[in-house]
Amino acid sequence: MIGRIYTKREGRRITFFQSLSAAGFGATAISFGPARMGFGLFVPEFKSAFSMSSSAVGLVSSLGFAGFFVGLLIAQFLLNRRGPKFPVLTGLAAATIGMGIVALSPSVFVLALGVFLAASSAGFAWTPFNDAVHRKIRDVDRPTALSEISTGTSLGIAGAGALAFAMVYLGLDWRTSWAVFAGVSALTLVGNWAALNKVDKGPEVGPEQGWSDVLHPVAMPIFGIAFVYGITSAIYISFAADYFAQEGLPGLSESSTSSFVFIFCGIFGLAGLLTNRVRSMIGLTWLIRALLITAAAALALVALMPGVWLGVSVSAGLQGINIMMTSAVLAFWSERLFPTFPSLGFTITLLATATGSVIGPLIAGLISDKLGPEVMFYGTAVIPLFTAGILQRRFVVERPAKA
């Protein structure tokens, strides 16, 4: 069967579907979990340790997402020349080193350096799997595999939140949490090294398959959705947990409240595994609209119902669903649009996300300091709500952007 490797021993067989899905799940769990989102989880501690304002938080967060942007560019370069294994391992090494630097950081400058390096792993570690999945897994199984890989983020987010909560319970500080993150990242690096040995380099990309070919009018909607997703998700990740922590929840400390937000976000994010099934039921256009409205509701609830268990739970849950399902949508939508150069198409899609992620927290931090966090959250919620209103079905297509 397509996508299987048979061993010489009868009855033993390993599928690329299983190995790539598991390796990709682990890589995204680390790189898109604590490496990319861990800063937002520990904003209350960072603000206390380094006397950071909302503007400073936005700046450091934006620098982290800039690392994501740079990682995407380097990953595409390495993928074309070395295959998927090299950029994935490079990204996990960056995550390990970056999180180690955060654990030891004596100042905001060093903290920002560690966050930049750790977050760059998200750019390195995801797009190569799109290339490998496209070449090694049959067409009917690709959306499921890509959904499973992208949903690794859920485990990473929930695990990071659970670890932070445990650290509070045990009386340990945030530096210990980041040291543990670095250790788990190192173990994931070893696992991916073993799993990706069987994935060879793809065929050379011809001159007719350049970046200009990906920037096709048919592809503009996916880039627009990716950009909006980058803005809204980055702002939520950077500021929501800290705002909830400031308002407090009955029975929880400030640090525990922040952990609770990320745990719920990660658990509800497991809905990403159902993304392809939901798309089959209601269609891609309605799925995207629903996710945009979900993002708007999650942001609005931060300002509307802080300090209330129901508001925090629903907001974090909706954001988890939005992050994971939108990630899965971008993965398989991009793979459908760019079947002849899936990794390049997905790279540009994620560059649109990264651009929004860099711009969003930087501006949001300034607005929060000047006008207050409520205005910032409500204003951000308008962006996905407006996008859902103007989204037209005729623009959302899944055919190749170039024949």
Number of helices: 18
Unreliable runs, pLDDT <50, ≥5 residues? 1-14
Strand order of the largest sheet: 1-2
Rg value? 20 Å
The computed structural class is: mainly alpha
Q: What's the β-strand tally?
A: 2
Q: Specify the oligomeric state.
A: single chain
Q: What would you call the shape?
A: globular
State the end-to-end CA separation.
28 Å
Into which percentage range does the β-strand content fall?
A: under 5%
Helix content: over 70%
- Average pLDDT: 84
Q: Describe the biggest sheet?
A: 2 strands, antiparallel
SSE series? EEHHHHHHHHHHHHHHHHHH
Explain this structure to me?
This protein has 403 residues and is mainly alpha-helical. It is built from 18 helices and 2 strands. The chain has helices at residues 16-31, 34-41, 43-50, 54-82, 85-104, 108-125, 127-136, 142-150, 152-170, 174-195, 211-214, 220-247, 254-268, 275-282, 284-304, 309-337, 342-371, 373-390; strands at 4-6, 13-15. Strands 1-2 form a two-stranded antiparallel ribbon. Helix 13 (254-268) crosses helix 16 (309-337). It is globular, with a radius of gyration of 20 Å.
Question: Main attributes?
Answer:
mainly alpha, single chain, 18 helices, two-stranded antiparallel sheet, 2 strands, 77% helix, 403 residues, globular
Briefly summarize what is shown:
This protein is 77% helix and 1% strand.
SSE diagram, text form:
Elements: E1 4-6, E2 13-15, H1 16-31, H2 34-41, H3 43-50, H4 54-82, H5 85-104, H6 108-125, H7 127-136, H8 142-150, H9 152-170, H10 174-195, H11 211-214, H12 220-247, H13 254-268, H14 275-282, H15 284-304, H16 309-337, H17 342-371, H18 373-390
Antiparallel strand pairs: 1-2
Helix pairs in contact: 1-6, 1-7, 1-8, 1-9, 1-10, 2-6, 2-9, 2-12, 4-5, 4-6, 4-12, 4-17, 5-6, 5-10, 7-8, 7-17, 8-16, 9-10, 9-13, 12-13, 12-15, 12-16, 12-17, 12-18, 13-16, 14-15, 15-16, 15-18, 16-17, 17-18
